[in-house]
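task queued by scheduler; priority normal; single chain, no ligands, no partner chains; default sampling; output format set to C-alpha cells
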Amino acid sequence: MGYQSMRIVILGNAGSGKSTLAKSLARTQGMPMLDLDTLVWEPDLVAVERPDELVFSDLAQFCRESDDWVIDGCYGDLVEAVLPHGPLLIFLEPGEDVCVANCRTRPWEPHKYRTKQAQDEHLEHLLGWVRSYYHLDGSMSLIGHRAVFDAYRGPKRLVTRLAELEVMQSAWLAAAATSRARAASLAR
C-alpha cells in the first residue's frame, strides 16, 4: 500500500477555530499551512484586497507545491477552488456565541496586524462581521458555507462542537503514526 496524501481545507466563521485547528495539524503532521487571509489582503495594508487573479493564482500554486497541505479561511469561493484536489473539507460551525468568545480571546496574529494593539482596535469591527455571518448571504456567510459544504461530493465533516476536534486530531495522529510505521517497515 502506497503513501496517501493528506489534504485538508477548513471553512467557517471568524472565531470558529479554523486557524487553531490548521496550526495544530500543520505542526503535528508536518504539513504546509495556508491562511487564506494572507492571500486575500495586501501585507501590512489594512483593508486593501489583492486582485482576484493573483489570489487564485497563488492559491493554485500553493496546492501544487505539496502533496500534503492544510488551508483555512472564510472565503467560500476560494475553498471551492481547491475542492477539485479532493481534500477533506471540514466545516466548523460552533455557533455565534463561541465564535464571539473566541475572537475576544484570540492571541495576537502578527501575520495580520503589526501590533496586538492594532488587532484589538479592530475587534469591534470583527465582532460585527462575526454576527452578520448568520444573517447575510454570499460566499463568506453561513448560507454560502453551507452551500459549498452541501455541494461537495468528496470527504467532508461538519463540526458543531469544538470538543469533536480533539477526537479528530487524536485519530489523525494515530493514523499518521501507523502510516509512518508501515512505511518504515516496507523500506527495510
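post-processing summary
- Strands lie at 7-12, 33-35, 69-73, 88-92, 156-159.
- Residues 21 and 158 are 14 Å apart (CA to CA).
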